[in-house]
Design a protein that fits this description.
Elements: E1 6-10, H1 17-26, E2 30-35, E3 43-45, E4 48-52, H2 57-64, E5 69-72, H3 78-81, H4 83-92, E6 97-99, H5 113-118, H6 120-135, E7 140-145, E8 148-149, H7 150-156, E9 161-162, E10 167-171, E11 177-181, H8 183-195, E12 203-206, E13 210-213, H9 214-225, E14 230-234, H10 236-248, H11 252-264, E15 270-271, H12 290-299
Parallel strand pairs: 1-2, 1-5, 2-4, 5-6, 6-7, 7-12, 8-11, 10-14, 11-15
Antiparallel strand pairs: 3-4, 9-10, 11-13
Helix pairs in contact: 1-8, 2-4, 4-6, 9-12, 10-11
The chain binds NADP nicotinamide-adenine-dinucleotide phosphate.
InterPro entries: NAD(P)-bd_dom_sf, NmrA-like, NmrA/Isoflavone_reductase-like, PCBER-like
Keywords: NADP, Oxidoreductase
Domain NmrA-like: 6-241
Length: 300
């Protein structure tokens, strides 16, 4: 499989897409960021070309022509299903690799019943990609799954921690342990896939930086900041149920966030894939030390 040079990124303005765009530019790729709202003329920003699209088939075919790979990092919720049009447009434009917006827990083998329902549009898209690859053998896909993204959880407060206020919200006991990946590791994985596309054609790759619990993070944060944090407790099951209510009320962002927190942090379970299933070595990921990584988050 020939090397890729030109990469289009959808959702490249987002919290995960932004770091992926930066990592691709740093690795020497020509990057085109496809965004919904920038005005009619393409602009160059920080080494990437930004072009506007209304996400219609015609608009995307035009933008994707000349691109070898498309990386999607569009938001959770309705944009996930909208990726089918992106896949169709990519095939029509002669794109050879599509990386869909995944990056979380496995959507082909969801570890929890709630996740299975929540991830149904992602799972369906993979079926769609598989079918298209059978029909168009020069087209291929790769998915990257990393469990819960540590940086997103800590920066946005989703995991219950506020570094500036030294407060923590612990769900149930805080002892549930789960797979977690840093955003830099996820962005590096996208780069590795596109540098060596043959190794990852039509594969669902699992990566992980840590297996961790809220309690372990709190202990490390208290130690790093040399202070006792103010801790409050929330019932995870109530949060999970509230999440499904919010989703039914057409509030996908808060709904999805509450369901994930309520389900993932509930009880004392251990949600992690086996070490043997990981693609960390294949993708050249180095081991990350949790304490060192949290130190860098606290410093920034
Ligand atoms: N594992 C985890 O812990 C974790 C955490 C967060 C997210 N994720 C996953 O990572 C992926 C990206 O999520 P993210 O949080 O980075 O997304 P985000 O920042 O909320 O949004 C990414 C981009 O999607 C584009 N977009 C297209 N249609 C949209 C619409 N209808 N509403 C809102 N934005 C829209 C926007 O780009 P333009 O405005 O430029 O078009 C936006 O900047 C998703 O698959 C999500 O499930 C995983």
């Amino acid at each position: 499989m020939a090397n890729f040079h030109n990469i289009a990124v959808l959702g490249g303005t987002g919290q995960i897409g932004g770091p992926i765009v930066k990592a691709l530019i740093d690795a020497g790729f020509n990057v085109t960021v496809v965004t919904r709202g920038l005005g009619s003329n393409p602009k160059e920003i920080n080494g990437a070309i930004f072009v506007t699209s209304d996400y219609t088939y015609e608009s995307l075919v035009k933008i994707f022509t000349g691109q070898e790979a498309v990386v999607s990092a569009v938001a959770a919720g309705p944009p996930i299903a909208a990726q089918k049009v992106m896949v169709d447009a990519a095939i029509q434009a002669g794109v050879r690799r599509f990386i869909p917006s995944e990056y979380g827990s496995s959507s082909i083998d969801p570890p929890l019943e709630d996740f299975k329902k929540l991830m149904a549009p992602k799972t369906e898209l993979i079926g769609y990609l598989r079918e298209k690859c059978r029909l168009y053998p020069t087209f291929s896909w790769t998915c990257l799954s990393g469990g819960a993204l540590l940086d997103v959880g800590i920066h946005s407060g989703t995991w219950g921690f506020s570094v500036s206020e030294r407060t923590a919200t612990i769900f149930d006991t805080g002892e549930a342990r789960f797979d977690s990946t840093t955003i830099p590791a996820m962005a590096r994985s996208v780069v590795s896939v596109l540098l060596r596309p043959a190794d990852s054609a039509n594969k669902y790759l699992l990566i992980r930086s840590f297996i961790v619990s809220q309690s372990e993070i709190l202990t490390a944060l208290e130690d790093i900041t040399q202070s006792k944090w103010s801790v409050s407790y929330v019932n995870a099951e109530s949060l999970r149920q509230e999440g499904w209510r919010l989703l039914a009320d057409n509030n996908p962002k808060q709904g999805i966030e509450s369901i994930i927190r309520g389900a993932l942090f509930q009880g004392q379970k251990n949600i992690s894939v086996s070490q043997d299933a990981l693609a960390n070595t294949q993708l050249g990921l180095q081991t990350t030390n949790l304490r060192h990584y949290l130190e860098s988050i606290v410093e920034n």
